[in-house]
Specification:
The complex is a heterodimer. In chain A, the strands form two sheets. Chain A has a six-stranded mixed sheet, with helices on both faces. In chain A, strands 2-1-4-5 form a four-stranded antiparallel sheet, with helices on one face. By secondary structure, chain A is an alpha/beta fold. Chain A has helices at about 45-55, 75-80, 100-105, 115-120, 125-145, 160-170, 190-205, 215-225, 240-245, 250-255, and strands spanning about 10-20, 20-30, 35-40, 60-65, 70, 85, 175-180, 210-215, 225-230, 235-240. In chain A, helix 7 (about 190-205) links the parallel strand 7 and strand 8. Chain B is mainly alpha-helical. Helices cover about 70% and strands about 5% of the residues of chain B. Chain B is built from 16 helices and two strands. The termini of chain B are far apart. Classes of the chains: A alpha/beta, B mainly alpha.
């Protein structure tokens, strides 16, 4: 292993067109392991489209996406998730009528013993696997301070708890790259501070790389090590927070030309 | 203002009733030799119109009063059952085993039939209740199971006990083959395709005269045996029969009781298997898929595999039920596998409460036993059936006993 090993995620010239509408154009960047990177941009800049292209919910019309040296842009979304790239959604997508615990168990489906006979006969391998899966779920309950709500239906949780559960559910799949789509949306200032801490802890303790979309600039500036700025589907800047703050193209994209 | 709106709505409903009632109950055709005439009976029409008007007018009060009833029913049974679960279950099973020895043959026979519907209800519940895939052609797999046994028995003389798993497997295979192209469809489209499949199977059985006997069906299907002991007066293959072996006087009731116990055994086995299935990872995945397919995909679950597993496993129970049905009847023809059977099984699932096992058992028993008790109302069966469904949808859309989460309890101190 050399120090400049292959980047965990490399996005090469990715573009996405819906009929005549170009939602994304020539987006290229690469992401090293254990980085926290933010994607920002005005509304409609193509941030979520980019996430959808990376996570396989859209197939990019041009370009390539490589995860750990393996092309993933043609894979269906569930295989991308299995390869270690998981995401959250802007409008939280929990299994609302299932309990918090069950949400975390479902997330580990691919790591459970799914053989029909093993489960029906309740054999040793199956029981051991179920135990592991349960322990992992309990770990994430503790970690996200959701233990008191373990047996509650996920849909009945408070908004901030639902956000945490969605992140916990992603983490339960043991991902390598976590995509967070507006994790702070709808959170109060206290919760946002806690989220900040949580995101960096996840990176430090679990070695997960994080790419997030966020509108809350204080959060973005505080935790991200690098920032990608999109405007009207095009990348207009890439750099450390301090540089992005001063970038003329970024300011004009957000505030308009005449403000400069 | 509200009162005026209600009166207008009630008047409109009464008007619709008038239009519908005149041809249905108002006019009778009298066909005596040589004369065909219409007789007019305005009295019934008037009654119908008045009843509809009053019910519509008071509808909102009915619904309000039903809400209270709703709350009571939701909590009461849960409290009672939860505490002594094991004891109650064993008592119920014990009762179910002992009961046929004291009941009349006719009753035992009806309950046996009800058990077939319980099995199908439990199977369809996997597909509709857990995985959320609307299957309107469930009867097709029932037919596949029944014909599998009938044909294997007729052409190859294979016994019931060997055919039982084979029938389930063949039904599952058909489910897999149908599911593979079809499960890409969602909601309504899936319902239509499965509905079509149900009809195709029936028409196929009707028209493949050389193999299935067409509309004449297949007769003289071998009955199940108890370790090779037949339940007839005289053994057909020269061996001992049940009563000869045990030195009992011959009683035709023995066979009825045996079939009943066999059905009970199959129901209990189905319950056992399904109860394990829904607690397994695949069971959790079914529910997750029903809740949110996109979230499932984002977590690495292949929706196609999970839907297929639900569909295949769910329809295999129809295969078992079909096999038992063929063995019990001794005669099957395509008439037994019309769309109405699918509708009844689906109604059982909806009435019982999607995803709720106990609810489905009760609904299946009610749906098969009540019509037998109310034989006099035979003519109005479909009418009552429709009315019950409408009332259920207004008062208890979640079913008789809505499913309770089989929560994996963890300490939340």
């Amino acid at each position: 292993m050399t120090t400049n090993a292959v980047a965990l995620l490399s996005v090469e010239n990715v573009g996405m067109q819906f009929g005549g509408l170009t939602a994304l154009e020539a987006v290229s960047f690469s992401l090293n392991e254990k980085k926290i990177v933010a994607v920002i941009g005005p509304n409609g800049a193509g941030k979520t489209t980019l996430f959808n292209c990376l996570s396989g919910f859209y197939q990019p019309t041009t370009g390539r996406v490589m995860l750990d040296g393996r092309a993933i842009d043609k894979l269906p979304s569930h295989e991308i998730a299995r390869a270690g790239l998981v995401r959250t959604f802007q409008n939280i997508r929990l299994f609302k009528q299932m309990t918090v615990m069950e949400n975390l168990l479902v997330a580990q489906f691919t790591r459970s013993d799914n053989r029909l006979w093993a489960g029906l006969l309740n054999n040793r391998h199956y029981r051991e696997k179920e135990e592991t899966v349960k322990r992992e779920a309990i770990y994430w309950l503790e970690r996200m301070e959701l233990t008191p709500f373990a047996n509650r239906e996920a849909g009945n949780l408070a908004y901030g708890q639902q956000r945490r559960l969605e992140i916990a559910r992603c983490m339960a799949t043991a991902p390598r790259l976590l995509l967070l789509d507006e994790p702070a949306a709808g959170l109060n200032p206290n919760e946002t501070v806690a989220l900040c801490q949580l995101i960096s802890d996840l990176r430090n303790d679990h070695g997960v790389t994080i790419l997030l979309i966020e509108h809350d600039m204080s959060l973005v500036m505080e935790i991200s090590e690098e920032i990608l700025v999109l405007d009207r589907g095009r990348p207009i800047a890439w750099g450390v927070p301090a540089a992005i703050r001063e970038d003329r193209a970024v300011i004009s994209a957000y505030l308009g030309e005449e403000c400069l | 203002m509200i009162v005026r709106q209600q009166i207008i709505a009630a008047l409109m409903a009464a008007l619709v009733t008038l239009v519908l009632a005149i041809p249905i109950v108002g006019v009778h055709i009298i066909s005596e030799p040589g004369v065909i005439a219409l007789s007019w009976d305005g009295w019934k029409v008037m009654v119908a119109v008045v009843v509809v008007f009053i019910v519509q007018l008071l509808k909102s009060y009915f619904i309000k009063s039903a809400v209270i009833f709703n709350y009571k029913a939701k909590f009461a049974p849960g409290l009672l059952i939860e505490k002594n679960r094991k004891l109650i279950i064993s008592l119920v099973i014990l009762f179910a085993i002992v009961w046929p020895f004291y009941a009349s043959r006719g009753d035992v026979d009806i309950v046996t039939l009800a058990f077939i519907y319980v099995m199908m209800g439990l199977g369809l519940n996997i597909v509709v209740g857990f995985a959320g895939l609307l299957d309107l052609g469930y009867v097709a797999f029932y037919a596949v199971g029944a014909y599998s046994y009938a044909l294997l028995s007729q052409y190859f003389g294979i016994s019931f006990w060997i055919c039982l798993p084979i029938s389930g497997a063949i039904a599952a295979l058909f489910g897999y083959l149908l599911g593979f192209p079809v499960l890409r469809l969602r909601g309504d489209y899936l319902a239509i395709v499965t509905l079509g499949f149900g009809e195709i199977i029936r028409l196929l059985l009707n028209n493949m005269d050389s193999l299935t006997g067409g509309p004449d069906g297949i007769g003289n299907i071998a009955k199940p045996t108890l370790f090779g002991l037949q339940f007839e007066r005289q053994s057909s293959d020269g061996g001992l029969t049940f009563h000869q072996f045990f030195g009992l006087p011959y009683s035709s009731g023995d066979k009825t009781i045996f079939l009943y116990l066999l059905a009970l055994l199959l129901v209990l086995l189905s319950l056992l298997v399904i109860n394990r299935l829904i607690r397994m990872p695949v069971g959790r995945a079914w529910e997750a898929l029903r809740e949110d397919e996109i979230a499932c995909r984002s977590l690495g679950l292949n929706p196609m595999h999970i839907k297929l597993s639900a569909f295949t496993l769910g329809v295999s129970f129809a295969g078992f039920a079909g096999c038992f049905f063929a063995a019990r009847q001794g005669f099957i023809n395509p008439e037994s596998f019309t769309f109405i059977e699918s509708a009844i099984v689906l109604a059982i699932v909806v009435l019982g409460g999607m995803g709720s096992q106990l609810g489905i058992i009760l609904a299946a028993l009610a749906m098969t036993i009540l019509p037998e008790i109310a034989r006099e109302f035979d003519q109005y069966r479909m009418l009552l059936f429709g009315m019950v469904m409408v009332l259920m949808m207004i008062w208890r859309p979640q079913g008789l006993l809505p499913s309770q989460r089989h929560i994996i309890k963890i300490e939340t101190s």
